[in-house]
Design goal:
Length: 200
């Protein structure tokens, strides 16, 4: 297997939206739905690029619900190989936790959607484990792509609100196989967006 940093930064399809998105309503008007997403190891921006499903997923949600109804925020963190080996960047996990809590506090009527790809899934798990019951109840949907913690659900988020997409042969989430299957999750953006739309 190649290194995690090179594995996840390889591009298998063009990104369908900006790899950097900062508009979760924390510094502006709140929207009906707030989508938070954490990229994988070694990826650019805060949504990821190349093999990251984040940009395509966010674009598909907006296409269904309307851009004016959906705020999207990428989680800013150092997605290093060391963070992956530690079970998810500790500082990134804290950033994700703080971002969820801030969205819940500042936008009390927004429906929160959380997602992560690869190490982004790890830090979502870590953050979800520390959420209060009240904030956890605010999460309308969680989507994880190529999650190293598969098949565990994140924190106390119900399985009915969680979609886990782990491709056959993906060594990162299956523990066996190779790298290629870990690089194709942008193709799952429409399915993942439909899951969210049905729950918000």
């Amino acid at each position: 297997m190649g290194s995690i940093s090179t594995l996840e930064s390889q591009s298998t399809s063009d990104a369908l939206a900006d790899p950097v998105i900062n508009e979760n309503g924390l510094s502006g008007a709140c929207k009906d739905v707030t989508v938070l997403f954490a990229k994988g190891t070694g990826e650019n921006g805060n949504m990821g690029d190349g093999s990251s499903p984040g940009p395509a997923w966010a674009a598909a949600i907006r296409a269904s619900l309307g851009t004016e109804r959906v705020a999207v925020q990428g989680i800013e963190y150092d997605a290093s190989v060391l963070g992956y080996l530690l079970g998810g960047s500790p500082s990134g996990s804290t950033t994700y936790l703080n971002t969820i809590n801030q969205a819940s506090t500042q936008c009390p009527n927004t429906k929160i959607v959380v997602g992560g790809y690869s190490q982004g899934g790890q830090i979502l798990h870590n953050a979800a484990e520390k959420l209060s019951a009240a904030v956890t109840a605010r999460i309308a949907a969680a989507v994880l792509f190529g999650d190293p913690d598969y098949p565990d659900t994140p924190g106390a988020i119900p399985a009915s609100k969680t979609l886990q997409i782990c491709h056959q042969g993906d060594i990162i989430c299956r523990g066996i196989g190779g790298a290629d299957a870990h690089l194709t999750y942008p193709s799952d953006a429409p399915q993942a967006a439909a899951f969210v739309v049905a729950r918000v």
